[in-house]
Design brief:
Elements: E1 6-8, E2 16-18, H1 24-39, H2 46-52, H3 56-64, H4 69-85, H5 90-102, H6 106-120, H7 137-148, H8 152-160, H9 164-167, E3 172-173, E4 183-184, H10 199-206, E5 207-209, H11 224-240, E6 246-250, H12 257-267, E7 271-275, E8 278-279, E9 282-283, H13 286-299, E10 306-310, H14 320-325, H15 329-341, E11 346-350, H16 358-361, E12 366-369, H17 375-385, H18 395-401, H19 407-416, H20 425-444, E13 463-464, H21 468-475, E14 482-486, H22 493-503, E15 508-511, H23 513-516, H24 523-538, E16 541-544, H25 560-575, E17 580-584, H26 592-596, E18 600-605, H27 609-623, H28 641-651, H29 661-676
Helix pairs in contact: 1-4, 1-6, 1-7, 7-8, 17-18, 17-19, 24-25, 27-28, 28-29
């Protein structure tokens, strides 16, 4: 308690002594206070002196005299006790070890100690008043300098420059009613006063060792050149102890950014540390995480094989808009210096770089985009992840054809189902869909998409105004071709693109209009560019389905965004050297400049009479329908391959007894009627 700091003494020359029961930290604080009272007589006040245990006569004497003997004697006693107890002090042991880890300079250690101890013993400084006005802050540094034997200008420079105290947020200059409360520090450093404090637990406050990656280099084959580049750059940085080595990895959530960073770091034998995002079960803000990063940079600066991973860095890296508005100038300048001076290589992970200031981007050693891996890669991952689990035939293919299903979702789906699966493939498949669909619905409102209907359509089933056989032969020689397929609905435009991909043994990247059109200006352009980029990475046939949705003529277009959207498409198409196919039902509406860029504009029309007869023959044979030869001599008009697919699906719903030639003909009649608006008669030849 305060009234026990000073005790009356019959053996002391001055008549007072320090209470032998007070803590080492209280002795240190008393030493500082006595120094202040000796040098600055005006700081002595009756409330402070009485609270320490001086009687009324002593208080009057202390205030009246210039350099009272009582204070000098008590200061001498306090200094002696400090020297005797320093080796046994729990705080001093923890403090010295922590300062050594951070490589703090002597002056930084002195100021750090003052902030910690004075706040820990704040009750002793309650009446040790600081200058009232902020304009007199120089006097504060003079007073603190008196306590810790440091020149005030040197102290002021600690908070004006780039000292560790400031960059790591060890001590912050604030405004308070007394000298101790002029400086604050994060409460986590109060752990240094505990005899249970261990440096390992202190370090865990700022970072944790990264877990081993669940992926292997094989899982990044789709970006193998980029993977090897980052690996080589990191290897060089570790070997040469390069300053300012930073990698920016961005992409949608769940695409493997963290796993990528962990894997590449582990391949180089690094001690991988991940900056903490949570402390005491609370999410840390961007500034707190940056301070943790700065502390880790100092702690591991002398460990040449350490790599830091800074995940969820989106809120840390200043945006271009924030820079323009001047809202993040200090943070921008601080991060510029961080990126240019860090001695420990760092992976910065974020979901998007769209809003990051270009001046920030150019300071990274290497930038890498990690998008959703190609279907084939995710299928390989899925087969490994779900190895040994009984599933419905084709379900993994269906799972991986959905672009929303990222590697992280695959891993989480399997881990969450542990102990719930059985030997029944149907039950397991239903279980996984029950677990997955709520997530997908929350993402964009749709459940897991069904497998595309696989319909065996031969090259002879298309009624084109071009020799398709010759086209396919040419595509086997070169795939730098742009094709526009147009014609009535159902004539097989999309399926022909799939047939091309299948015959060329290339993946098909099918893009729907809904995949491109965004709610905000600029989103559609980014989606268009992303589609072409994905096709290049996957070496895929790129199919833009129903392209008339956004590629309408710019003549007379009133909306600026429509023109920029078409311009972006044309620019990407010009730079694309792969096989591009688009489909439309309304070629006359397309932008003329776009049409000029297509090497082939191929019309797929309604089936010819011969093709209709062939399709009908195959259909009745499949269902074993009795028929007469004359049944095929029909004038079937305005029918498409899709009409026969629909008829086949309807027939599968009937019992064998209900299926006959009349039923088939009626189904085709119905489809004709929908196209013409009339109930057409089938004309016999």
């Amino acid at each position: 308690m305060l009234d026990q700091l000073i005790l009356r003494s019959t053996t002391s020359v001055c008549g007072y002594q320090l209470n032998p029961e007070i803590t080492d930290e209280a002795v240190t604080s008393a030493c500082w206070i006595f120094k202040l009272f000796l040098r600055f007589p005006r700081m002595r006040n009756s409330r402070a002196l009485e609270s320490y245990g001086f009687d009324t006569d002593a208080v009057d004497q202390l205030i009246a005299e210039d350099k009272p003997l009582i204070l000098s004697e008590l200061l001498h006693e306090a200094e002696q006790r400090m020297r005797q107890s320093i080796s046994a002090s729990v705080f001093e042991r923890n403090f010295s070890e922590f300062c050594a880890l951070l490589s703090l300079k002597p002056i930084e250690q002195k100021m750090f100690r003052f902030a910690l101890v004075s706040n820990y013993c704040s009750f002793m400084f309650e009446h040790v008043h600081a200058p009232f006005y902020l304009g007199r802050s120089a006097e504060i540094y003079t007073q603190v300098g008196c306590c810790i034997d440091v020149h005030p200008d040197a102290l002021e420079n600690l908070f004006a420059g780039d000292s560790a105290l400031k960059s790591c947020n060890l001590v912050k200059k604030v405004r308070g009613p007394n000298l101790a409360e002029q400086f604050s520090h994060p409460g986590i450093f109060d752990n240094l006063f505990s005899d249970r404090c261990e440096m390992a637990s202190m370090l865990a406050i700022f970072s944790q060792p990264a877990m081993a990656s669940n992926l292997t280099p094989v899982d990044f084959q789709h970006i193998d050149p980029e993977f090897r580049l980052v690996d080589n750059l990191l290897k060089r940085a570790i070997k040469s102890r390069q300053v300012g080595c930073n990698f920016l990895i961005f992409g949608p959530p769940g695409t493997g950014k963290t796993e990528f960073a962990r894997l590449v770091s582990a391949m180089n034998g690094a001690n991988v540390q991940e900056i903490s995002a949570i402390r005491n079960e609370e999410n840390l803000g961007s500034k707190d995480r940056l301070h943790s990063y700065q502390i880790c940079q100092r702690i591991y600066a002398n460990n040449p094989e350490t790599v830091i991973i800074f995940d969820e860095a989106d809120d840390v890296i200043p945006s271009a808009l924030g820079v323009q508005l001047g809202n993040v100038d200090q943070q921008k300048q601080a991060l510029h210096k961080i990126l240019e001076s860090n001695s420990v290589p760092c992976f910065w992970l974020c979901n998007s770089v769209a809003n990051i200031d270009p001046a920030m981007l150019r300071r990274f050693t290497q930038i890498l985009m990690l998008d959703v891996p190609p279907t084939s890669m995710r299928l390989t991952m899925a087969k490994r992840i779900f190895n040994g689990v009984q599933l419905a035939e084709g379900w993994l293919e269906r799972l991986c054809l959905d672009q929303r299903v990222t590697p992280a979702i695959l891993e989480r789906l399997r881990s969450n189902s542990c102990g719930l699966t059985t030997d029944n493939a149907g039950e397991n498949t239903q279980l996984f869909e029950m677990m997955l669909n709520p997530l997908l619905i929350a993402m964009d409102g749709n459940e897991l998409r069904p497998l595309p209907l696989k319909t065996a359509i031969s090259i002879d089933s298309y009624n084109a105004d071009h020799h398709l056989d010759e086209l396919l032969k040419g595509l086997r020689q070169t795939t730098d071709v742009k094709i526009c397929l147009y014609g009535p609905p159902g004539t097989g435009k999309s399926s022909f693109a799939a047939l091309i991909a299948s015959l060329l043994n290339m993946p098909l990247l099918k893009i729907q209009a809904s995949d491109l059109l965004g709610s905000y200006v600029g989103e559609t352009e980014k989606a268009i560019a992303k589609s072409f980029r994905q096709a290049r990475q996957q070496n895929a046939v790129l199919l833009f389905d129903e392209v008339d949705t956004f590629l309408l003529s710019r003549d007379g277009a009133e909306k600026h965004w429509h023109k920029t959207m078409v311009n972006e498409f044309l620019s990407q198409l010009d730079e694309f050297s792969g096989l591009f196919v688009c489909t439309t039902n309304f070629i006359e509406l397309l932008d003329k400049a776009a049409l000029r860029r297509f090497d082939f504009k191929i019309k797929l029309n309604y089936l010819s009479e011969e093709q209709c007869a062939s399709q009908l023959s195959a259909l009745v044979s499949e269902f074993g329908i009795e028929h007469a030869q004359s049944d095929f001599a029909l004038d079937l008009q305005r029918l498409t391959p899709a009409d026969f697919v629909l008829a086949r699906r309807k027939l599968k719903l009937l019992t064998s007894a209900a299926i006959d030639m009349d039923t088939v003909i009626q189904y085709l009649l119905d489809e004709q009627a929908h196209k013409t608006g009339d109930s057409l008669e089938l004309v016999l030849h």
